[in-house]
């Protein structure tokens, strides 16, 4: 009987550990990658308005299995994370890697829909949030992030180059010729 329980426990553990290696896990890990900017959510059940989200100037930079958290351009935390997309809602677990919170574990849930990432995280290791809305007084963090788009490459498109050639003689006549006279 004991050996059966140990075997079942090992199978359950291996299934959990391999969830991030499934095609869905790899697909979701790929979706996480990049930079994300805070656009909404709630802290301890208090909803963040648009102005508050902009004022916080929070950004996540996700590379591999690490999340760097920035406030006003300054890195404040570095976390490692693991996901389990086989659960409903999908689960995320984080561990602080530096600072005063080093070693602190959080459990949470997440959803990625296109360029929108929603996460609810619980710092206290007393369970996992079950939904994205956080009631007032509950010490969970709910964030809504939008993927940062890379800035457009100026001067690399055909139309931009053609516009540059078309404007160049006009600028030359207006700027350089009066200087030479």
| Record field, number of beta strands | 9
Overall tally of structural domains:
1
As laid out across the biggest beta sheet, the strand order is: 1-3-4-5-6-7-8-9
Spatial shape: globular
Helix content: 25-40%
Number of helices: 4
Sketch the major β-sheet: 8 strands, antiparallel, barrel
Write the H/E string, N to C: HHEEHEEEEEEEH
- Radius of gyration over C-alpha positions, nearest whole angstrom: 24 Å
Account of the protein in words:
- It is a single chain.
- The chain is α+β, with helices and mostly antiparallel strands.
- It has one domain (2-147): Lipocalin.
- Helix content is 31%, strand content 37%.
- The chain has 4 helices and 9 strands, in the order ααββαβββββββα.
- The chain has helices at 2-17, 23-32, 50-56, 158-180, and strands at 34-43, 46-48, 58-63, 66-71, 74-84, 90-96, 105-113, 116-122, 140-147.
- It has an 8-stranded antiparallel β-barrel with strand order 1-3-4-5-6-7-8-9.
- Strand 7 (105-113) and strand 8 form a beta hairpin.
- The longest helix has 23 residues, at 158-180.
- The model is unreliable at 1-20 (pLDDT under 50).
Summarize the structure.
This protein has 181 residues and is of the alpha+beta class. The chain is built from 4 helices and 9 strands; from the N terminus they run H-H-E-E-H-E-E-E-E-E-E-E-H.
Secondary structure topology:
Blueprint: H1 2-17, H2 23-32, E1 34-43, E2 46-48, H3 50-56, E3 58-63, E4 66-71, E5 74-84, E6 90-96, E7 105-113, E8 116-122, E9 140-147, H4 158-180
Antiparallel strand pairs: 1-2, 1-3, 1-9, 3-4, 4-5, 5-6, 6-7, 7-8, 8-9
């Amino acid at each position: 009987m004991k050996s059966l329980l140990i075997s079942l426990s090992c199978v359950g553990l291996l299934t959990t550990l391999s969830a991030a290696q499934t095609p869905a896990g790899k697909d979701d890990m790929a979706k996480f990658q990049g930079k994300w900017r805070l656009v909404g959510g709630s802290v301890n059940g208090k909803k963040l308005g648009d102005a508050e989200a902009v004022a916080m100037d929070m950004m996540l930079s996700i590379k591999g299995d690490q999340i760097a958290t920035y406030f006003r351009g300054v890195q404040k935390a570095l976390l490692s994370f693991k996901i389990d997309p086989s659960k409903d809602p999908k689960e995320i677990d984080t561990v602080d890697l530096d600072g005063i919170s080093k070693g602190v574990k959080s459990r949470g849930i997440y959803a990625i829909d296109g360029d929108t990432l929603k996460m609810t995280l619980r710092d206290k290791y007393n369970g996992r949030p079950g939904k994205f809305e956080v009631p007032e007084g509950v010490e969970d963090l709910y964030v809504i992030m939008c993927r940062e788009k890379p800035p457009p490459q100026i001067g690399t498109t055909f139309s931009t180059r053609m516009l540059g050639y078309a404007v160049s003689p006009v600028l030359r006549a207006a700027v350089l010729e009066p200087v030479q006279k």
